[in-house]
Every structure is written in structure tokens, then in C-alpha cells.
Amino acid sequence: MQTLRLTNNDSAQAAEILRAGGLVGIPTETVYGLGANGLNPEAVRAIFKAKGRPQDNPLILHIPEASWLERYCENVPPQAWALAQRFWPGPLTMILPRKALVPDEVTAGLETVGMRCPSHPLCQEIIRLADIPVAAPSGNTSGRPSPTTAQHMLEDMDGKIDAIVDGGPCSVGVESTIIDLTGDVPRLLRPGGITLEQLRQVLGQVEVDPAVTRLMGAGEKPKAPGMKYRHYAPKAPVTVVTGDPAKAAEYIAQHADAEDGIICFEEFLPLFTGRSVTRPVMDLGPSGDKEEQARHIFDALRSFDHTSVPAIWAQCPDSGGIGLAIANRLNKAAGFHIIQV
Ligand code: AMP
Ligand code: MG
Questions:
Q1: Mutation probe of ligand 1 site: the residue of 142, 189, 232, 298 with most atoms within 8 A of C-beta
Q2: For the sheet containing 4-6, what is the strand order?
């Protein structure tokens, strides 16, 4: 299949392909998504095939405004409306009880469905023109780092999807926050662009699912099926070093081999570059600017797959604000191989 390259002038064509049951790479504020008509089971099955995604890992339905929630969800609680009012359109996904018209292919057979209203103007326009809920996971091959540019997505999906719309680099850079509103207490399933602190301002109590901060044991059943899979992993093994940024950088400088790849905060770049080393070094952004780090994290992880580095060492921010999402992605990429200095 030839993958059409579309731009911001082609939203009507992208919408038409979606309506006809095709697969379209769509820019969002978080990462690029692999979109299909969320009411068409066959189109949704094609997403799983293109990504090599396990069948039991459900997708998120993308809608243009909160009023669409009641079309696809049963018993929408007041908390959902409060969150939508505050954070939509934006990088927040809510897990709610589904209505029967949502295909099993979207929810992987669950009685709940993930709902999100993205803020990227081009994405909004495409969904409105298509006039359907768009089912979309991140546009990477299953297990790989999520794509934050059209080029990243083409690395994985060229020839496997009908079209991709280039909307420039993603402004948030990590996937949406996922909050489960179907239990007694709201539960954070995946940290993302909307922070835990922001959620607590609206909801009061929010539990953090154990899978956010640690590796799930073999016998444990995760709440979100996707949590049990290895994620975001480049080809070389990753070691995360957390703690005081200067100490962590020093630790890496002492322990990394000359050929190992490095992901470090901007101010420590000089520690890792020099005439005698051949390694690639990726700049995560200044240690004090987590928003910038979020925009760089997936590009940094992906970049090493174009090299032959035997191992990767990564600095990591503390877990305040969007740091929780960055740390979660890095720790998952590392299989929770973390060194605390
Ligand atoms: P992706 O956008 O590729 O990161 O995939 C969507 C994420 O949403 C996966 O981690 C899914 O497990 C999660 N998800 C989607 N629907 C549900 C649901 N009904 N319950 C729990 N998690 C969900
Ligand atoms: Mg994904």
C-alpha cells in the first residue's frame, strides 16, 4: 500500500479516508495517533494489524467535544463533566462505562471505554469533518517509543496505512493522562500531559495505580491491559539514573562505556562529549524545564535505534508535575532498571 502524505490543507481528504474505513496517521498535541472509524469493527481491526498490537490492549475513542460522551458512554458521572470542563480539549483520557454501540474491537471486550477530546486544531478539524468517533492508539509499532513527528510515524507505518497528515512536532510529547472513573475512587492508570496535581485539584482524592511506578509481577492482573506489555523500548537496554541531577550525571560519566548512548539534561552535555568518545548523546532539555523534556523523551529513545550503541544511560527528572509521566516512560523503556544516586 502507498501511504499518502497529507498536510494541513488536506483535512477533508483525511476525514473522507476515515469515513471510508481507512487508516490515517493523525497529529495530536500528545503524540501521533493511528486513527480509524471507531464505529467500524473492520477498520479498527486493521489498526491492530498495522501496529502488531496485542488483541487485548484497548484503544481510545477521540471525540470533538464533551457533549459526545453520552453517545458512547453509560452513566457519565459528575466527575467526568467536571474534568471535561477543566481539561478538554486536552491531553486527558477518561475511562467510563461504555454503551453497546461501541464495538468490542475498540474496548478489547471490556465494559469500559477510554474517551479523549484532543486539542490539536488539525486533529479537531479532521474528527469534526469525519463526524465519527476516531479510535486511535499511538502511531508506533507495538512496543516501540511513540511518534512525536510525522517522520517518526513513517519509520514504523510507511506502506501499512492509507495516509498520514503532517501537523508538525507534537507540543506535549507524551501520551494523554488516563484516569479511570469507574471505581469508588478515581484512579490514575497512566500519567501524561495533565498532571496528578491538576487532577487532585478537581477530584480531591486520586489513587495512583501501582503499575505507574513499578514493574507488575507475573501473577498480577493490571487494570489497564496495556500496562503489562514492555513499552517504549529502544533496541539497546536502558538504565535510568535518578536523584540529584548533577550527581546522576556524574554517576553516568563514571559508569558508562565510551560507546554507550547517553540521554542527559542540557547542562551536562559537556560531560559526555569529547574527542575520545564516539557515542551519541541526546539532550533531554534543561533539568529545570520538564515540559521541554516531555517533548524530547521519545525522540531521544528512538534516535538510538539508528546507531549500534550496546547500552543507553538516561537521566530522569523527579516525579513532580509532568515529571511523573517522563519518569514512567523512561522507567518502562528501562524495564524498571533504575539506579538511585
Ligand atoms: P496508546 O494510546 O497506544 O497508548 O493506547 C491506549 C491506552 O489506553 C492503552 O494503554 C490502553 O490500555 C488504555 N485503555 C484504553 N481503553 C481502556 C479501558 N477501557 N480501560 C483501561 N485502559 C484503557
Ligand atoms: Mg501506545
A1: 189
A2: 4-6, 163-165, 24-26, 33-37, 134-136, 60-62, 112-116, 92-97, 177-180, 187-190, 207-208
